[in-house]
Inverse folding.
């Protein structure tokens, strides 16, 4: 039984398509229409999309790299520096409020004058 | 391809702008005044008419005043919490008492309004409230508003000073990494920033002296009491604090310039 299987396997080893069939198959494969889900040409929308994503990633990464705090000069780069700048907006608003304080008081006084007449 | 390059260029420009904008201090939009209530303007010479409409205005005044007091007290609490060293002294208690007293007066006036009987009584009550506001409430409130500004400026300057100390240490530590020329450039910017903070401190000190001169102990009393700050002095006072704020802002512009330069130097060296 073993000898039989061995001889069959030897036959398989020597099996090959005739040169004409091989050439024909290759030709038919190459000439058939390629039905890929998208085309990867330079002008194709898919290429533009991929390019845009990569470009965005590069831009983001570069911006983040420049802005991100490096541990080396912490005092100049940590986020609190920006936060401290932003917190002064609040001060500016309070200054504006204070300037309107007298105006508000005058309006109330005028209303009370009206009631007392 | 042109479209792609245009798109990429636009993206770059957008991110560059966004990055710059996050540090743009000039572009602070004040817009609507948040926090404090506003009161509608009355038309001069209009007869207000019957008791009902007088009661309506009186209630409006009391609502507005209460809202104003509560809002200012909240700001006072926030300032007190942030002011760890209690630099502004003994004055918190004075202004807290002013707020509490104002709320009590408002509650009393509300009862009076509810018990009103006739237009004449409404007239008298309006005069009463008017007098209370002009002689007590407005005087102390005006000082409270200015006190809050003084406290806010103090914390802004103190934070900038603390920041400058940290930066000073970092520059000294990384002198070798920056190189001689780089260190010199950083040091120049740092000196300018320090000068701005010093100027902010000077402006704030002059405002503080002016403020203090209106918080005095009346003759024979030990407790402090606010007196009415003149309009001219108030302008001078608030301008000094505005200048202090703008010097602090300028100091941060130098810090941010230093930050960019330090990045470039570390990448180059």
């Amino acid at each position: 039984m073993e000898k039989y299987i061995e001889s069959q396997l030897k036959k398989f080893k020597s099996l090959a398509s005739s040169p004409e069939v091989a050439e024909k198959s290759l030709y038919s494969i190459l000439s058939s229409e390629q039905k890929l889900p998208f085309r990867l040409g330079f002008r194709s929308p898919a290429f533009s999309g991929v390019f845009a994503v990569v470009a965005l990633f590069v831009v983001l990464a570069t911006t983040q790299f420049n802005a991100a705090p490096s541990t080396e000069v912490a005092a100049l780069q940590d986020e609190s520096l920006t936060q401290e700048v932003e917190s002064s907006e609040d001060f500016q608003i309070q200054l504006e409020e204070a300037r309107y304080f007298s105006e508000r008081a005058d309006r109330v006084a005028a209303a009370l004058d009206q009631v007392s007449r | 391809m042109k479209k792609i390059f245009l798109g990429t260029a636009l993206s770059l420009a957008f991110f560059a702008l966004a990055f710059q904008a996050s540090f743009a201090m000039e572009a602070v939009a004040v817009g609507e005044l948040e926090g404090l209530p506003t009161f509608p303007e009355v038309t001069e010479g209009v007869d207000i008419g019957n008791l009902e409409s007088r009661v309506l205005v009186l209630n409006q005044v009391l609502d507005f005043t209460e809202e104003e007091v509560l809002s200012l007290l909240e700001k006072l609490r926030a300032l007190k919490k942030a002011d760890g060293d209690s630099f502004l002294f003994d004055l918190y208690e004075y202004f807290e008492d002013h707020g509490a007293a104002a709320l009590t007066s408002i509650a009393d006036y509300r009862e009076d309004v509810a018990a009103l009987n006739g237009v004449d009584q409404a007239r008298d009550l309006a005069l009463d409230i008017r007098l209370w506001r002009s002689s007590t409430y407005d005087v102390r409130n005006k000082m409270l508003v200015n006190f809050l500004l003084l406290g806010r400026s103090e914390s802004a300057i103190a934070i900038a000073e603390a920041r400058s100390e940290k930066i000073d240490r970092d520059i000294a530590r990384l002198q070798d990494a920056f190189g001689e020329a780089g260190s010199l450039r950083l040091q120049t910017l740092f000196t300018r920033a320090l000068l701005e903070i010093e100027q902010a401190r000077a402006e704030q000190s002059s405002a503080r002296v002016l403020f203090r001169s209106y918080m005095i102990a009346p003759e024979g009393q030990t407790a402090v009491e606010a007196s009415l700050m003149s309009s001219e002095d108030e302008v001078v006072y608030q301008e000094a604090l505005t200048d202090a704020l703008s010097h602090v802002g300028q100091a941060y512009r130098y810090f941010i310039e230093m930050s960019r330069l330090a990045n470039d130097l570390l990448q180059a060296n």
Chain A touches chain B through 52 residues (CB under 8 Å). DSSP finds six helices and no strands in chain A.
